Amino acid sequence: MNWQCAGLQKKNKDMQLTYTKRLYFLLAFTILIKILVGALLELGNDEVYYYTYALQPDWNHFDHPPMVGVLIRFFSLNLHWLSGLSLRLGAILSCAVATVFIFKTGKLISSEKMGWYAALIYNCSVYTGIIAGLFILPDSPQMPFWTAALYLMSRIIIKEEDTKTWVWLLLGLVIGLATLSKVHGLYLWAGFGLFILLQRPKWLLNWRLYLAVLITICAIIPIYYWNVQNNFITYRFHSERVTHHSVDFGSFIQEIVGEFAYQNPVIYILLIVGVIFLIKNRTIFPSTLLVWLLSMGVPMLLLFWGVSLFNPTLPHWSGPAFIPFFFIAARYCELKRGNAILPVFIKIAGGLVLFILVFGTAFIRLAPFNIGSQKAENFGEYCPTLDLSGWNDFGKTFTELAKADVASGNMRPNSKILINKWFPGGHLEFYVSRQCGLPVIAVGKLEDVHKFAWLNKDRKSLQLGENAYTIVPSNLPLDVQKIYGNYFRTIDTPGVIDQLRSNAVVRRFYIYRLKNCIKVPDPILP
């Protein structure tokens, strides 16, 4: 009997080591793939915009808290190594860290096998694995803190560590850091608070809980401090996005369809299958654990569904709400998929993600056509591939053009590049201004230029008599005379630079020379 027990223990230990080794392989494989893709694709609209957070660090920014800028600063070696890969490296490694926390939480809930399945699901989800796990967005630094918070909560609940002060303090800290990444990190306390009210009301007498909340509050003081200085512009801006009162079923349907795509259609179906299995077999989780998982996901999901009934939303806003359901789906795989290392759902979902990455990268780099408008007045509009290609080559060509303009006397040295929106402002800042040395200056409304209003404060404004360029990509048409005509004596007929892919024109850049400033634009103030 002792021999059998010893053999069983050795077998279990071998299995644990096997799943841990598989986790390491998963991390290495996903990091390598993402590094390749991150190096091959240029930065998208949002990514180059968040570069400005690193370019001008602050306690908070117009749209979001500062953590994404901090992440960019760190992995770009304080902006000394700037490339698509360096900006994305923080997102890639943050996804790896989050995967470890997902694995550890699944292991704590049931077993390493369940942790393995949860880790696979996390990486096969388009939101957690790609949107937040490859592209550099505020969600990227938030995910390791979000998943760490779930892991610490699971320790408090499952291992009954509610009397361990360090666990509570660390929980308060990671929730604070999640909120410094994106303000809806505060939902972690809302969901956990609901669980406490329903299942652990005695914890309301635990002083450690309040100390943890205090640590979170201290961590997010920079957000409050910045908003006091800037008339709470962040919340005035976001509140205007979600204060419509008429029902819009189209927006709601768009949110649901977007979530279906962002979570990976196969993973979304797996989550539904897992929930149905849970309904039929409620004993697969202890009731306390089940209430916790549902508290951490369902209210947040319902909140964004409710918002989408009245306002346009973006599907990634609700992305973290699906993470608790990953554990439900992982539990289903653990109980129903036998000893399969890669269940069928995971194989299909992972294959779909790999296909999207490989095919998408090849298409963006090589397709001899765009999939947007073919009309001359907005050539390429609605083609998302143009956000991720062509900018680096354009920056090089424009730099030579600007030098030639100065040499010929057609433009004065140190002319400004004017923008009236944050896109393509971000691309012009990262790919053009850095190469040619001409500063980007925003002219227009705060709600259009966002962070560039603060960058303006650190840059010499447009002066009377000066010249400037404005660059209009054909996929982002603009009436230059209407926007800038009042500020300059003359606006020359634009020059044209074609973006080529596989020797075919997929977009045109129109270069306008604005000459002799006769009126200085008003400052853009919050």
How would you describe the overall organization of this protein?
- The chain has 526 residues and is α/β, with parallel strands linked by helices.
- The protein folds into 2 domains: 17-231 and 248-361, no CATH class; 383-517, no CATH class.
- 61% of the residues lie in helices and 7% in strands.
- The protein has helices spanning 2-40, 45-55, 67-75, 84-109, 112-124, 126-131, 139-158, 165-181, 187-199, 207-219, 221-229, 233-241, 249-262, 265-280, 287-308, 323-336, 344-366, 391-408, 422-436, 446-449, 452-457, 480-484, and strands spanning 416-419, 440-442, 468-473, 488-491, 495-501, 504-517.
- Strands 1, 2, 3, 4, 5 and 6 form a 6-stranded mixed beta sheet that branches.
- The chain is globular and about 80 Å long.
Key structural traits:
2 domains, six-stranded mixed β-sheet, alpha/beta, 526 residues, disordered N terminus, 22 helices
Low-confidence stretches: 1-11
Q: Sheet bearing the most strands, described?
A: 6 strands, mixed
**Strand percent estimate:** 5-15%
Distance between the termini: 76 Å
* Rg calc: 26 Å
Number of helices: 22
Q: Which geometry do the CA atoms define?
A: globular
Helix/strand-derived category reads alpha/beta
- Give the SSE order as H and E letters: HHHHHHHHHHHHHHHHHHEHEHHEHEEE
Total count of domains: 2
